[in-house]
Amino acid sequence: MEAVISFLVLSLLPQLIVSEVPTTTSYRAIVEIVSGDSRIFSGESLKLRCVIPDKYQASWDYLWFRGSVQLPQSGEIYQLWKANVKESGKYSCQGQRETDVGTIKTQRSLPNEIHVDGGYAILQMAKRPVLVGDALDLKCRLQGNAPVHETILYRDGIEVMVQSGSSLNFHLPHVTLEDEGRYSCRVSWDLSRRTHSVMSVPIPVNILEVLTEPVLEIEKDNAQLERNKMRLICHVQYNAPAPAPPVTYYYYKDNNLLGPATSLNHMHVRKAAGWYSCRAKVPKLDIVRWSKPQSFGEVTGPPLMPLRPHHRNQMTSRSPPHTFSAPETQPASPTYFASTPSSDQHTESPSPSSPSSQSPVSTSLPTSGQLPG
């Protein structure tokens, strides 16, 4: 009887071991556009590549998806050949390989949205993401080679820029958060003694702050902390391109600085009632952002904020509409801030803080004999 039991245990042991092997790795696949753009005309082609960030450079097979539907194509490169409008969608990929313990897959990539446009004009962005202070460069693509005489750029249906001539490029220097919106373009040309125009489908343009407003979290219930201690966590999103200069953090309680500057976004302090806040600063860019005060324990009266030294802050004012007869030949270099720098000290000198048309007409599409080219 004991021999039978031992045989059953030994026969089930390999199955138990295999079941504990993970079927999904920590790697997340990445979809890149090899040739073309995320917005193309119907009939154009586009190539995508699936990248597996595997430092061991193992051999992988590839799965492709549009939305939740798996596509029949396999291989590292996925090609849309003479794409049609129905092939628009969010494309993602996933790596998989066979091992001695079964099939192992990577995490599916974040989707890359592809738009196949059946119209005559497309508005394209030169780069993403766009940060506050950057220049926004847009291009209005037109099917064919029509003799263009005017191009208009709109934001949320409001005219932003008018250009005379054949140029289809738009340049908006030093954008702010108020420049966010849905952009479209209208192209006009003369043909057979008549004026024709087409308008692109609006595209979203998002403007990111280099350093977002911090959010202070007070963590008081944590088994790893001493009984009379709590942790302050300064959450902030830093969007500067690599190599990005470092961020330093400051923590305050009731208008008092708690210790020197630190490169860590958290700090352990003694539990005490009061108003707490944090400050994030990028010294090399001279950008400073403050969190809203958070209360802990029984506090009375309005929240107290530290006296803020004079500093350069990020631009947040709305930029006026741009109207040019032609685009600038030399784009201005990005500027993230305006004002004078301040020295960074543990005990800072106090000073007052500073707070930081026309709608497009309906489009009449040209007939087949009037199309550009």
Structure report:
- The protein is mainly beta and 373 residues long.
- Helices cover 5% and strands 40% of the residues.
- It has one helix and 28 strands.
How is this fold's topology laid out?
Blueprint: H1 2-19, E1 24-28, E2 30-35, E3 39-41, E4 46-51, E5 61-66, E6 69-70, E7 77-80, E8 89-99, E9 102-107, E10 112-117, E11 121-125, E12 130-131, E13 136-142, E14 148-155, E15 158-164, E16 169-172, E17 181-191, E18 194-199, E19 203-205, E20 207-208, E21 215-219, E22 229-235, E23 248-253, E24 256-257, E25 266-270, E26 274-282, E27 287-290, E28 294-296
Parallel strand pairs: 1-9, 3-10, 12-20
Antiparallel strand pairs: 2-4, 4-7, 5-6, 5-8, 8-9, 8-10, 11-13, 13-16, 14-15, 14-17, 17-18, 17-19, 21-22, 22-25, 23-24, 23-26, 26-27, 26-28
Mean pLDDT: 79
List the total number of helices.
1
| Helix proportion | under 10%
Tell me the structural class: mainly beta
- Choose one word for the global shape: flat
Tally of strands: 28
Low-confidence stretches: 16-21, 315-320, 323-365
Sheet with most strands: 7 strands, mixed
H-E string: HEEEEEEEEEEEEEEEEEEEEEEEEEEEE
Percent strand equals: 35-45%
Using only C-alpha atoms, the radius of gyration works out to: 29 Å
Q: What gap, in angstroms, lies between the N and C termini?
A: 89 Å
Sum this structure up briefly:
The chain is mainly β and 373 residues long.
